[in-house]
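Journal club prep, shared notes

We agreed each person brings one worked example of a sequence with its structure written out as tokens. Mine is Phospholipase/carboxylesterase/thioesterase domain-containing protein. I'm keeping it raw so we can talk through how to read the token line rather than staring at a rendered picture. Sequence first:
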Amino acid sequence: MEFPTPHIHHPQTEHTHTIVLLHGRGSNGLEFAEELFSSSTSNGQNLASRLPNYRWIFPTSRDRWSTTFQEEMCAWFDIHSLCDIQAKQDLQKEGLRESILQILELLESETRLLHGQASRLYLGGMSQGMATALWVFLAGIATGRIEAPLGGLVGFSGWLPFAHSLESILDSDRESSGPCTLHTQGLVAQFFFSEISNSEISPPAKPSDVSVLSTPTFLSHDTDDAWVLVELGRHASRILQKIMGHVEWNESTGAENEGHWLKEPEGFDQILRFLETSAALHLKRNM
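Then the structure, token by token:
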């Protein structure tokens, strides 16, 4: 089954940046876009109005069988439990591989529209969308399909699949020299190809430049989240800090939907600040 056509919110002025955002399990691209843009920053405007030069892309996953709910549902991958994310992890692999390849192809297409300027492209998601987006990025550097730093990664109310296994490899390797190193990049690639990939995905002839790990990352989670516990988000942040050069972690209290959302307007102000700051940083580097 093919993936549906993404929902696109086109820029209102000259197109300078693109952000790809992945929905959570049971949702879809259009629904996620409507929810996101119905929320406001502190001046009363939504993110699209504050960033009129951005092209907003909301892909939709294909439907797949949920072993937990025993029904077809729109999800990037199957998962047994969010109470114990280590249980039956093999269920996640097929969907993750499919979704990773789909989103990497989309990122490559959008980079071409930006005339090869990957620093003007952002990737992120909510809940399972964040979980998928993080592995899209890590797989992108493992396969060499993300060759240069992106503008940034954005995730909220989510987690990192295979977190404990990946962390174990990062912590047990005595030669590891910390974040943003070629050795750490190699460990991530080794884990991806041994634990998640299959024969359809080949290692690159030449690894991505290690500078790709300097991609700024913004993660946020509400402590009241009843669906994805905040500790799962904290754990994801800690692991990424061992890999990436700049990872920003934010917590809030009192968000809507039992905490499974961004707190309004503070959370949206934080995303706006992150996008504007990282865009200015990349512009300065390229001057």
